[in-house]
Design goal:
Length: 219
C-alpha cells in the first residue's frame, strides 16, 4: 500500500492530463464507426495516444497494412529507446515486460528522472498500472458515452488534425532549423498528394525522414 500511495502521488498530474484526452479518443473512435469495446481493446493493447487516433483514421479510411505499419513505426519509433533506457532493474522479471509495454512519453519522463532512482520495483509497477488503467477507463467512458449520444459526433475527427498540429509545433520548436524543416514537410506532403494521393502518408513520411537525416548531419 505504501508503494501504491507513493505511485499515486507521482502519477496524479499524468492522470489528470490523461482523462480528458482518453475520453475524447473514446468518443472519436465510436464516431468513426468503431464498436466501444474495440476502442477499449485498442487502449489496452496499443496504448499510444497519437497512434491510437491514427489507427482509427487509417482503419476507417481503408489503409493498407503497409501504410499502417509505416505510420506506426514513425509515430512510435522513440518507444524502442524508452524500453532500452528506462531503469527497470528493481522490477521483478515477470513484471518487466508490462512496465516496458506501458511506457509513454509522460511515464518515461517520470521514471527516468533523478528522483526515480530511489523507486522500488513495486512503485514503478504501480506508476505504470495507474496511468494505463486511467487511460483505458477514460477511453471506456468516452466510448460508452458515444454509443448513447444520438447527435452527430463525426466532427470529433478534428482532434486528430489538432493533435498533429500540436506535435508538429513542438517538433519545430525543438529544431534548430524550424522554417527549413517545416517547408520540407509541407513540400513532401503536397508533392505526394499530387503525384500519388493513395501513398501520401508513406511517401511523404519516408521522404521527409531521409531529408531530415541529411539536414541533421550537415548541421
Amino acid at each position: 500500500m505504501k508503494s501504491f500511495r507513493s505511485a499515486f502521488e507521482d502519477t496524479s498530474p499524468i492522470i489528470v492530463g490523461y482523462l480528458p484526452l482518453a475520453v475524447t479518443f473514446g468518443l472519436f473512435a465510436v464516431s468513426q464507426g468503431f464498436h466501444w469495446w474495440w476502442a477499449v481493446l485498442t487502449a489496452m493493447c496499443v496504448y499510444s495516444g497519437a497512434l491510437e487516433f491514427i489507427l482509427v483514421a487509417l482503419y476507417t479510411g481503408g489503409a493498407s497494412l503497409a501504410t499502417v505499419a509505416t505510420a506506426s513505426f514513425f509515430v512510435s519509433f522513440r518507444h524502442i529507446f524508452y524500453g532500452l533506457s528506462v531503469p527497470i532493474s528493481p522490477v521483478k522479471p515477470l513484471a518487466r515486460l508490462y512496465v516496458i509495454h506501458a511506457l509513454t512519453d509522460e511515464t518515461y519522463a517520470l521514471l527516468s528522472s533523478p528522483a526515480a532512482k530511489t523507486f522500488t520495483g513495486a512503485r514503478i509497477f504501480w506508476c505504470q498500472l495507474l496511468c494505463h488503467s486511467t487511460w483505458v477507463a477514460g477511453v471506456a467512458v468516452g466510448a460508452l458515452a458515444g454509443t448513447y449520444i444520438s447527435g452527430d459526433l463525426t466532427w470529433l475527427a478534428f482532434t486528430l488534425t489538432a493533435l498533429f498540429v500540436c506535435m508538429s509545433i513542438d517538433a519545430l520548436k525543438a529544431s534548430s532549423q524550424p522554417w527549413l524543416l517545416g517547408a520540407i514537410a509541407l513540400a513532401c506532403s503536397l508533392i505526394f498528394l499530387w503525384l500519388a494521393p493513395e501513398y501520401t502518408m508513406i511517401g511523404s513520411l519516408l521522404t521527409y525522414a531521409c531529408i531530415s537525416l541529411i539536414v541533421g548531419k550537415t548541421e
